[in-house]
Amino acid sequence: MRPLEEWIRQHVSLERTPSAKLRYDAMDHQAPRGLAGVYRPFDPDEIYDWVDLTLIFAYLEALGTRGRLLDVGTGDGWPALPLAPYVREVVGIDLSDRRVAVSEENRARLGYANVRFAVADGTDLPFPDASFDGTVVGTALEQTDDLDKALAETRRVLRPGGALVATFEHLAVELSQNAEEEVEFFVEGERFIYRYVVKEVSPPREAEYELILRPAPASRRPLELAATSFPCRPGFVRREGEPGSRPLADDVAAAYGLEFLRGAAEAVSSGRYFELNHTDRRSLEGSLRDAGFGEIQICGRITRAAHGFFIALHEAGLLRGALRPHFEATCAAFATLWPIITPEADPVLFVRARRSA
Questions:
Q1: What's the CA gap between 22 and 274, in Å, rounded?
Q2: Which of 128, 191, 267, 329 falls between 20 and 30 A from 239, CA-CA?
Q3: Where are the domains of the chain?
Q4: Under a CB-based contact definition with an 8 Å cutoff, are residues 209 and 181 in contact?
């Protein structure tokens, strides 16, 4: 355990909560605002739409069905919404009320009638046995507190022979060192919010802490200065007005690390956290087998190969030229290569497993 995390555990009264309630309820948007298939239709004139659509066709190719699908941990509607034009029906679930509301907004804007969203827990699915032809999961299984139970529930609602297809974070490759830490500090009305995130390779785990600081009037000014001085992160932030988390290194560590929290200890009134135990490739395969899945394939994500391929075609003038009328067919053809993408260097794994009879 890192020193900052150890201090928080020892000095703050913490309430444990699911990551959906702490992290994902706190986001105005989880997916990038311009994500094709979720916030707008796919467009062959947008180069990276070729890559993203290839991943959707890889899901379909690995599933082997265009029937009724379940999307677990749908976020803002990925991959439920981009799959919708190609399947009979999609049901997307998420434990975050906010994410389900955003997904429904996106569905209504895109005009899909064969998609619905609901608040539900992946470890306690509110569906009958064998009620789906396939299940898709976009980097959400690793966010559950009980992976084995989530896999068992996924198997239960699949028809015999139905496939689970998932992308899965692989911390051993994602992290450049054994541990990575990030912090964020900002003012919210009369209170201050301090967030701390840690990810570790061995054993693979991540934890996030949200501390509420309510200073006395005499000590408020220094915290206001610290909040306004926090270096903003370019690009994605959770909500408008929040600076975005920054790596706990160099000047950020000196200004907002352990010594900062020690100095503000009297103002800390409460805190929430979640902790997740991640899995590596070998233990993931074992968990799938224990849950009753067979025909397990763990590959790299096809987008890694598709990116280089389509950039080369774009530079040759083909994506907006000869191949443009064949946008979907080209992406679907490249997607058939998903089983041969090696996983060793990929921070996101692509997993296909079938329910045994």
A1: 8
A2: 267
A3: 3-22+175-277, 47-170+280-355
A4: no
Element (H, E) at 104: helix 97-110
Q: What is the end-to-end Cα distance of the chain in Å, rounded?
A: 43
**Hunting for tokens 């890694």 — which residue is that?**
304
pLDDT at 235: 67
**CA of 295: how far to CAs of 147, 161, 168, 170, in Å?**
19, 10, 17, 20
Which residue is associated with the tokens 């999961």?
Answer: 137
Angstrom distance (rounded) from CA 104 to CA 116:
7
Element (H, E) at 138: strand 132-138
Residues with pLDDT less than 50, the chain: none
Please state, in angstroms and rounded to a whole number, the distance separating the CA atoms of residues 155 and 164: 8
Task: Mention every residue, 6+ apart, whose C-beta is less than 8 A from residue 165.
Answer: 59, 62, 63, 134, 135, 136, 137, 350, 351, 352
What pLDDT sits at residue 201?
Answer: 92
For residue 242, which of 192, 298, 182 has the smallest C-alpha distance? 192
Whole-prediction pTM: 0.92
CA separation, residue 21 to residues 16, 94, 270 (Å): 10, 10, 16
The predicted structure's pLDDT at residue 33 = 83
What is the model's pLDDT at position 4?
97
Per-residue tokens: 6: 């150890």
Q: Does domain 47-170+280-355 have CATH number 3.40.50.2300?
A: no
Q: Are 87 and 66 in contact (CB under 8 A)?
A: yes
Amino acid letter at 165?
Answer: V
* 53 and 327 Cβ atoms separated by less than 8 Å: yes
The pLDDT of residue 173 is: 87
Residue 206's nearest CA partner among 249, 169, 239, 232 is 169
**Which DSSP symbol is given to 231?**
P
